[in-house]
Amino acid sequence: MTNRGYDVVVDVDDHEGDLGHTDLQEDLEFHSSNFTTHPSKPPPSSTYAPPTPSSLTSKRYLWTLSFYAQFFAVDTTHVLHRCLSALVPRRPFLDILDGNPDLYGPFWIATTVVFILFLTGTISQYLASHHDTAFVYNFKLLSGAAGLVYGYTAVVPIALWGLLRWFGAGGAESSISLVECWALYGYANVIWIPVALISWSPIAILNYVFVAVGFTVSAVFLTRNLWPVVSVTEAKVSRVLVLGVVAAHAGLAIAIKILFFAAGPAANALPKGDEPEKAEKIVRALLGM
After folding, report:
1. Which residue of 73, 139, 192, 205 is most buried, as measured by CB atoms within 10 A?
2. Could you count the other beta carbons within 10 Å of the beta carbon of residue 198?
C-alpha cells in the first residue's frame, strides 16, 4: 500500500482445512492512522533554558582578582621561552606572545633586575671605598633601583600606547594592546640581568662596554618589534616615535651606569667640579637618592 495516514488490519479466518485463507476483498479494512510523517517533539520544559554566548563566558571586572589573574596564567616554560626570545630574537615577539601576553614574567624580571642592581652596585661602591673605615650599606640604592626599573617599565609603555592611539594606530590590524606593550618592555629588561651581574668591575671602561651592549640589545629588540605598529602612522610621526623609544631607553641605560656603576678608582680621582659628578647628582636628585 502506498497510502500514508492509514494502517492495515487483516482479518484471518481460522477454519478447519483452510488455515491461512484470507479474503482480501471482504476482510481488508482501512482505519484512520494515529501516525504522522514527522517525529513528535518533546513537550517544552519550563525549567530548561538554552545557553547563550553571554552565559558561556565569564565576565571579568577591573576590581576583581580574576581580571588580573588572566595576565599571570603562564607557566615557567612559556616565561623561559619568552626570555630567550628577547635575548636571541628570531621571530617577532608579538607572534610569540600569540595574543596571550603576561605580566608574570615582566614583574619578576624587573624585580630580579632591581635586587641585582642593588647587590652589584653595593659591591662596586665597596671596591671603590677606602677600607680604613667601616663600610656603610647604602639602601637608597635599593629604592632608587626600584623607582627606576619599575617606573620605566610601567610608565613608558603607557605613554607609548597612548601616543599610538592618539595618532591613529590603535584601530589598525597591527595595533598593540597596553598589556602587550607592558610585556614587550618587561621582557626587554631581561638583558639587564647579565649586564648587572658583570658590571661591578672596578675597570670603568668595561662597565661602559657592558652597559652599551645591554642598551644595544634591548633597544634593537624594542624597535624591531614596535616598528610594524609605529609604521602605521604617518612617516614623520613614526620616526619621531621610534626616536623617542630609543631616547627613553638610552636614558635608562645612562641612569643605570651613573647610579650603580659609576664608582671606581677613576670616578674617585675626579675633581669635585667635574661634569660626571654633576650629572650623577642630577640623576640621584631626580630619583630621591
Report:
1. 192
2. 14
Output the CA torsion 244→245→247→253 (10° steps). 160
Q: What is the pTM of this model?
A: 0.69
Q: Which residues of 96-132 are buried (b: 16+ CB within 10 A; e: fewer)?
A: bbeeebbbbbbbebbebbbebbbbbbbbbbeeeeeee
Q: Which of 175, 199, 185, 103 is nearest to 152 (CA)?
A: 185
Q: Read off the pLDDT of residues 29-43 as tens digits, 9 standing for 90 and up.
A: 555 555 555 555 555
Long-range contacts of 113-117 (CB under 8 A, 24+ apart): 113/145, 113/149, 113/189, 113/192, 113/193, 113/196, 114/142, 114/145, 114/146, 114/149, 114/150, 115/142, 115/145, 116/193, 116/196, 116/197, 117/141, 117/145, 117/149, 117/192, 117/196, 117/256, 117/260
Residues 121 and 256: their CA atoms lie apart, in Å, by 9
